[in-house]
């Protein structure tokens, strides 16, 4: 039986960013250096396949430092941790490696700089997300106030309207965040923003790629995890940019085929913590049902690379 034709547009860039790639390498190098088990506080990145793969190699994932023994190395996830966590690890004389993405660390440094200048900080982010928890935990209680939506801006109670700064989670929707920033600036005209936008290059690039293809496809598949903020934002961006149907899938097995019935074209992208082999798995699953015509839509080139910590590098 002849397979129906399907136009596939592959977003580029998609998938792993430099911070995710670095974090995974850190866990792998730690296992190589110290042997298994190596403990990781929180999922190193938000992707089940990646976490399961590292677990099979000897990583043990825990939620809190108290779940780790003193005599084994512990790694802090790419999302960043509150200052109290490395302080406690040092107190316990643990070997620890910080895999925080350098672009998240940049936001931490920014928040501290504003705090040192006497400013109270408003953070735009998702409550409970590990990156938000980590950034807010860089400063004493009450020094960082959280807003999630434009509506939240009207209710935030600040110490001094003339002494404020804002930072953002790195994985937010660019468009939604712009609206919240505008609301902050309207209510607090003297609020200080970051020198360079906090939303990271990878988040921005992946959202721009989705916008570029959204109007050209009947449906879109975003390969990523439900707890991945940047993946969830790609689904939203696709819908908002004119794609009739956007679906988040962890693996090809999660595709809702009934929802795709009758489509002639589909876009595929992947969140920054989703490996390329999962994208290929989705393409193969589509190829089993359709005759594919694949086009790569490249909207940006990425050549960013972050070094791993010195403790894990072999001396030159």
UniProtKB/TrEMBL annotation:
Residues annotated for (2E)-4-hydroxy-3-methylbut-2-enyl diphosphate binding in this entry: 46, 79, 129, 170, 228-230, 273
Cofactor: [4Fe-4S] cluster
Binding residues annotated for dimethylallyl diphosphate, in chain numbering: 46, 79, 129, 228-230, 273
Residues at the active site: 131 (proton donor)
Positions bound to [4Fe-4S] cluster: 17, 101, 200
One annotated GO biological process: isopentenyl diphosphate biosynthetic process, methylerythritol 4-phosphate pathway
UniProt-annotated binding residues for isopentenyl diphosphate: 46, 79, 129, 228-230, 273
Family per similarity comment: Belongs to the IspH family.
Stated name of the protein: 4-hydroxy-3-methylbut-2-enyl diphosphate reductase
Name of the gene encoding the protein in the UniProt record: ispH
